[in-house]
Design a protein that fits this description.
Chain lengths: 218, 217
């Protein structure tokens, strides 16, 4: 039984801090040996988690969803209404897509996603969050100075574009549907998906028309 | 809990470091820390908000400075020790590992393949009608409490408007105490200018907040 006792947990944390190797790589190695020897962890399962989020599940999934929304108005409506069901339609359901919400950029709205309390992220559809998303700087600043944060990412918004920041405080997860760039009429979904950067689906990238890459192209 | 994890709006943080942004993990030990943490946690499931609270209870300096998945691993270890699956002496190397706990069923590769394609559902049913309707103005609680909560400090005592009703979800404050309470959840829209003194534009901030965090304005 879990104790649900914060004081007991604080003591455990102090012990772990004092007695485990201070170097992260050594700490992880020591713990893997112990957990495997103790029979609590199967190293194949550890490999399987890493493979899943290195090889299979990443921002390509989100990019496919965005490209389809650009091409298919009915799908776009379903995505904005219930993104969890819409991605499942494409066979892209995963961890943290159960309560997925899609929020759409337009000429006068820019969306930005953050989790100020921990690091909630729609990793089932975008893969592992980039390091900066989990870092204190982004979590502290995104709600207070989103325009300053965006400038650092090379996104300069004029005053007539309103910023909407989504702080993921519950089990809902947010992804941004960026605007389709002009001049892509007639492109197929694979070509469109290649334009969609991971950062554009978090909201730290906006204009997908240029050749310049800001954040990983999928 | 007024911990360092409650980072929204805290000032003094500098530029965002974008190194490693294109890699899912920071090298091998970061990936192993992730895989170990989730394997250990899924083998003996804990309510998500108990996991979050245990992570928030990490020493503040460690919380802000150690690698991200290192903090997950420490959290999973603390949870397993708390529950009795492991002992502190085993973890700290003062005693060789004891026998496998009777009920241990370590996750297999196949279990992981299933988990990564299965979205969990957190919505619950409740007989209590929703107290607020979309468009209504609400005010958030003026004070926090020393347990786990998902009302960030930067939106305490702030006026907002109900943007959407999301059904009932487990109240995190109760879940982290080992209790199950299904409570209505709302997405609430705040004017950034109402939350931060220096903001002078029309930008908006949305948070998902439970009914007991809110009152009629």
């Amino acid at each position: 039984m879990s104790s649900f006792d914060p004081q007991k947990i604080t003591k455990i944390h102090r012990h772990l801090h004092s007695h485990l190797p201070p170097e992260p790589a050594l700490r992880v190695k020591a713990m893997e040996s112990l957990l495997v020897e103790k029979g609590l962890v199967n190293p194949d399962a550890v490999d399987a988690w890493i493979e899943a989020y290195t090889e299979d599940i990443g921002p390509k999934r989100g990019a496919q969803v965005v490209a389809r929304a650009w091409l298919d108005a009915d799908f776009r409506a379903r995505l904005l209404n219930d993104a969890g069901a819409a991605v499942a339609e494409m066979g892209l359901q995963g961890q943290a897509t159960g309560h997925l919400k899609a929020v759409e950029n337009s000429c006068d709205v820019h969306n930005l996603v953050v989790c100020t309390l921990c690091s909630c992220y729609p990793f089932g559809i975008l893969g592992m969050a980039p390091a900066w998303y989990k870092a204190a700087e982004y979590r502290a600043r995104a709600v207070r100075d989103p325009r300053g944060v965006l400038t650092e990412f090379g996104v300069d918004l004029s005053d007539d574009v309103a910023v909407k920041v989504w702080d993921s405080t519950a089990e809902l997860r947010y992804m941004v549907v960026p605007e389709r760039p002009a001049g892509t009429e007639g492109w197929d979904s694979d070509a469109l998906a290649k334009l969609v950067t991971r950062n554009s689906m978090i909201g730290t990238d906006r204009d997908l028309s240029g050749g310049e890459t800001n954040g990983r192209r999928s | 809990m007024d911990g360092v994890h409650d980072l929204g709006g805290k000032e003094g943080f500098g530029r965002i470091n974008r190194s490693h942004e294109d890699k899912p993990f920071h090298g091998d030990h970061d990936a192993r820390a992730y895989g170990l943490s989730v394997s250990l946690r899924a083998e003996r499931p804990y309510p998500i908000d108990w996991f979050r609270h245990v992570r928030e209870l990490i020493d503040p300096v460690d919380y802000l400075t150690r690698p991200y998945f290192d903090s997950w691993l420490q959290t999973s270890l603390a949870l397993a020790i708390d529950k009795g699956a492991l002992t502190l002496e085993e973890v700290t190397g003062h005693k060789s590992p004891g026998p496998i706990p009777d009920n241990a069923k370590p996750l297999t590769r196949e279990d992981v393949h299933k988990i990564v394609v299965t979205p969990p559902c957190f919505e619950q049913s409740t007989d209590t009608p929703a107290a607020f309707r979309v468009g209504e103005t609400v005010v958030t609680a003026a004070r926090g409490h020393s347990g786990h909560t998902r009302l960030p400090a930067y939106v305490r005592n702030a006026k907002g408007v109900i943007h959407a009703h999301r059904g009932a979800h487990p109240l995190p404050d109760a879940e982290a105490r080992g209790e199950q309470i299904a409570e209505h959840l709302y997405t609430v829209e705040f004017r950034a200018a109402d939350v931060f003194e220096e903001v002078a534009n029309n930008d908006l901030i949305y948070l998902d907040l439970w009914e007991s965090y809110l009152a009629t304005a």
